[in-house]
Amino acid sequence: MKVKSYIIAAAACLAFSSCSDQFLKDMKNYESTTPEAYNYYTGAIGRLADLYMLSLPYNGSSIPVWQSPSSGNGDEMDKSTEEFSGFGAFVNPQIELTSLSTTNGVPDFFQGNANKIRNSAWGRIRDINDVINGVENSTLTDAQKNEILGQAYFLRAWSYYMMFRWYGGVPIITKVENPLPGDGTPRSTTKETYDFIMGDLDTAAGMLKDITWNATTDYGRPTLATVLALKGRIMVLYASPLFNRKNDLKRWQDAYEFIGNSLADINRCGNSLAFANNPGTNASNWSKMFIEQLSPEAIWFAQYNTIATGGTPDYAKPNNWEQSIRPSNSFGSGGKTPSANIVDLFPMKDGKRPSSYNSYTVLEPSSITYDRDLPFLNRDPRFYRTFAFPGVCWAFEGDAVNADLHYPYNGSDYALWNYVWYEKAEDRNDVENGDNYGPDGLLANVKGMYVRKRTNDAHVEGARYVYSQGNGFKFSASPNIELRYAEVLLNYAEAACQAGHPDVAVEQLKEIRKRVGYTGDCGLQANLATDQAACMAAIIYERQIEFAYEGKRFDDLRRWMLFDGGAQTVPGAPDTWKLTGWGGNTCNYLGFAKLNGTRLENMEFRVQDKYNGGLGGDKFGSDGSNPDPLKDVQRCAPVDYRQDLEPQLQTLAEWYNKYLERAEKKGDNYDSSHAKLNMDYRAKYYFPGLPYNAMMANPNLEQTIGWENAAQGGATGTFDPLAE
């Protein structure tokens, strides 16, 4: 696509980061160049290095949505799933997204800032094309060309995939073109776009197949495994109900055969299931893999370092995840609150869904009674590594003791006690009231539950952050893994199940569960190898647990059309949009309770009323007193995940029963009359429209069916993402 408002001259860039200082130092600003520079290996490598800054899947709320996929940070996609409450943009019943203005505008996964090439999705593709064309026409050796071009073709495929997954067909541009007023490249069909991405990945695979990167200086570059894993992901996406309404079995069979054949090559590249059959103590190794510097699990990822930004050197890029999830009394940013719904849906320790969780009903419920008031009892090992609740250790390397704020711990023995109390009786039972307070200096910053996933727990792994009371965990070098080996296996399982090989699918599920401590049948029901719907439900459920807070759930809900099962229609859409595969409704097929019409709530553990009769001092303790109603109560020993969990959790449960109670707190919104509102994912959101600014910049660009073209007086869209 040529956009007339492009400004070709680009601003200087910050450098790309990795755990290797040498690799980081190489990632300087090489955006400005001449064709002659590609005749020199160092010049070509410099231009390639600049592409990583524009393409890597970074973690952070400030990263534009066109540039990087969701990473579990609580963005508009995450908040449109069961993971976070609060009505993300796609499920807000009070606001319908539009393509006619920027007010309540549909999120822009297509363009970005057209006036700044480095802040634009198409500017990124232009730079990649410049590298590809420059290197192909250079005097470099064939080996040097393959090394650079293999990476560039992968990055172009990745960039197109980022748009394809939302829009289907998009303009295909392979040359560096100067923008001309009134000129523009039309959208290709979805099939043409898919084939183009597959072609780039095949080209990249051929060029990278014999290249082994230096683990010290080049760790983080795409390998043959990265190319193959991304291709498998896209093939499964293309075979899913979103793009495959009639359930064309050939797409599933192609994905099944490709992924199965690719596993050996992926393994030869050094990737495998990290800590396979070695869960450690209470799934400690599953937790550790997110922090490891050289994990075989990581296939496509971004690296970070502990250097402060805003000064020199210019390759500083710390990861903000650890800072964002840590509680405020350990000098984190306050933490992230999981919805009560996702806490309640995690499997029990026998691997089966809680009997009270009325979704995936084709899956057998657990025989273990789920106690909602004590949700930490008898759960899947990953539960304890995903959530934090009152009474658990959450150690870190550093000293957070602050006498003025009454913080009674060092980092090495930090225990989270985040029960809550209220100053007024009328606030206590008001689910919309947020005037609750927590102990140990949390006070008004308390969270009812915390997301713990991907934490750098000092009881598991040494610190990859530089800690201080002033900065907390701000300077962290933990990686952000976008595509990991577990996904390769679950993509394989999904393709196998749908292609008629459920026995193969079950074996992949077992491998995933063995890694966290399951044995034998791994808690999987006996009919998965004979019942395709049950097998598929087990795979989707496993993905929901395994990839919680990694930014994958929204994609799964959307491609399997689980907001409504595919039952709604889009005005103006042809009959080919009607879902005819999977019995015409994917929710019914999977026994999944559709998300439309439901809502998410939050939860807290509050001090029982008999203890919450008075505060014993100023509510913030500013008079020097301790406002905690349980200040004179002996706490039980916090749960230490390095030890046997069962007796510790039973002791904690006894303490809860005596002093605390679970309570519901407002999650999703209420209307002005304080009536509860429910999720509403509109049918046209499955294929978002091109945003207002993109349409105004290129009026000849075809808009998607179901959306309006602002540049053509609001004319209805005509582009069909499902047309071949």
What does this structure look like?
The protein is mainly alpha-helical. It is built from 19 helices and 14 strands. The strands form seven sheets. The protein has a two-stranded antiparallel sheet. Strand 13 and strand 14 form a beta hairpin. Helix 3 packs antiparallel against helix 4, helix 6 packs antiparallel against helix 7 and helix 13 packs antiparallel against helix 15. The longest helix has 26 residues. The N terminus is likely disordered.
Question: What topology, given as strand order, has the largest sheet?
Answer: 1-10
pLDDT under 50 segments (min length 5)? 1-30
Q: Average pLDDT across residues?
A: 91
Number of helical elements = 19
The whole-angstrom Rg is 26 Å
Percentage of helical residues? Answer: 25-40%
Q: Give the tally of β-strands.
A: 14
What is the end-to-end distance?
20 Å
Principal-axis shape equals globular
Strand residue percentage: 5-15%
Helix and strand composition category: mainly alpha
Q: Report the biggest beta sheet as strand number plus sense, adding barrel if it closes.
A: 2 strands, antiparallel
What's the arrangement of secondary structure elements?
Blueprint: H1 21-26, H2 41-55, H3 121-136, H4 142-167, H5 190-208, H6 224-239, H7 249-268, H8 284-288, E1 298-302, H9 321-325, H10 340-345, H11 381-386, E2 387-388, E3 392-393, E4 415-416, E5 421-422, H12 425-428, E6 436-437, E7 450-451, E8 465-468, E9 472-476, E10 480-484, H13 485-498, H14 502-514, H15 532-546, H16 553-559, H17 586-590, E11 602-607, H18 645-659, E12 660-665, H19 692-697, E13 708-709, E14 715-716
Antiparallel strand pairs: 1-10, 2-7, 3-4, 5-6, 8-9, 11-12, 13-14
Helix pairs in contact: 2-3, 2-4, 3-4, 4-5, 4-6, 5-6, 6-7, 6-13, 7-13, 13-14, 13-15, 14-15
